[in-house]
Amino acid sequence: MQRRLVRTPLWLVVLATGCLDFGTGTGPAGARTCEQLGWSCGNDATGASCGTCDFGRSCSSGACVDPGERVIASNATAYALAGGYSGVFFSLPAAGTVRFTATSSGIFQLGVFTTSDWAVFASGQQANAYVLTNPTPSVTERVSLPAGTFTLGFRCMNAVEACTIRYNIIATN
Question: What is the pTM for the complete model shown?
């Protein structure tokens, strides 16, 4: 009886493992991290789970984005007292489209302002905004912005209870 060596084709190994990474990275055993591969994972814009990166790659929860998109804030929280304001600064190194999602058990307005216009709005006065939503418990907005520093501002429209607002900011250059 003669023994015969059977070689498993490489494509079969790849199918069995689901993923093969030949790149040099900073992850475990030299694997590229999710960020190095251009992936993000966690929750999508509606809050539904997208899962996690597999095979030992490091990835924390966040918004699911395609390569070319950049997560600025993911599943973050802002607090505003009833009738009050809360603002989050963010910067864009280049012009791009920015997607915002936000939800709250209360009613709020979402706006995108220059830092100087935010100061005016947060003082209770009318101000210019790239976008300002009607009062709502949930919103998704998309706006084109130039390079610069901006404020994602929230105004809690509740009469008595404070607003706890969960939000995401994702930019595409």
Answer: 0.63
